[in-house]
Amino acid sequence: MARKKPTISDVAKRAEVSAAAVSMALSGKGRISKWTAERINKAIDELGYVRNNNAATLRSGKTGLIAVLVHGLKQSFNLEALQGINSCIDEHKKVSFIMIFETQAELENRINIALNYNVDGFLIVSDRDSNENIITRLNALNIPCMFVSSSARSNQRQQIGLNALHSGSIATHYLIKGGHMHIAFIGGDQKSLDRAEKLAGYFTALKEHDLKEDTSLIIADSQQPPLAEKIASLLSRSPWVTAMICYDTATTRSVIPAITCCGRTIGKDSYINRDIAIICLEKMNDSDFISPSITCIDTSGTQMGWNAARQLILHMDNENHPLYSEAFHPALIIGESA
């Protein structure tokens, strides 16, 4: 004969507390003493009680499930944001439903899957420009969502993003203050809004220091010809270049050997050793054991992910709590390369 599953009443009887106290302990709501919570948890373990989430969902109308959709895992920022999101979700005793997507069609598919599981909200880590359509769709279903992006757009709703223009600006200012007057900007897709923002910061800093814009020092990332050939051509026609701002970590990894192949070295001594200073506009991974260490942007991805999750959860628990946008101003992590 099958053993009868223990109930909340059984747990309450074993712990010598009320059923209401057990419910509060299970839901994390209400105030119960540490001593009472320990008695309840001990009773749960002894009886082998398993909470009926379906019943809890029927009572509250909520599943506690949050869809976390991430646009690929190649970017270090996305991994950091995911870490922050999971930390916050765990802290608030919610459950994350993580799915990865690469294309717009895959994103739509992941949203449909999550909706079938009755998620309470969405957290989307992406730099795509389809945010507004998704917000409109989910708002019509009364399901909140927040976006986390490595670039912030001034007109974007419900997004925690990095101020990409500021990234380009502080990197350029830093190099100019270090005595560099001929600074190249390397990498990034010409159609990328994130790249456009970073370039705008680069141009703004040049203008503020009365330095002439030279578009021949700007190289977009493309397959043909290879980036190494473009770097060689750049240094051949403009040997006075003493610094390079790299769009992202992938560009940085390609630029370093390309500079070395041209007989130049990476570093801060642009006068005697003819070093070329490098700054990466993304945070370099701890696993990138590159010498010299690379000066880079601190994207604060973990904190941004945590903030976005926190906002979403507060709104899920109280609809009067607004979902607002926030633009993070990055800082430089100073290494040996600049």
TrEMBL record:
Residues 6-60 form the HTH lacI-type domain. GO terms for molecular function: DNA-binding transcription factor activity; transcription cis-regulatory region binding. Keywords: DNA-binding, Repressor, Transcription, Transcription regulation. It comes from the Bacteria. PROSITE patterns: HTH_LACI_1, HTH_LACI_2. PANTHER family: HTH-TYPE TRANSCRIPTIONAL REPRESSOR PURR-RELATED (PTHR30146:SF148), LACI-RELATED TRANSCRIPTIONAL REPRESSOR (PTHR30146). This is LacI family DNA-binding transcriptional regulator.
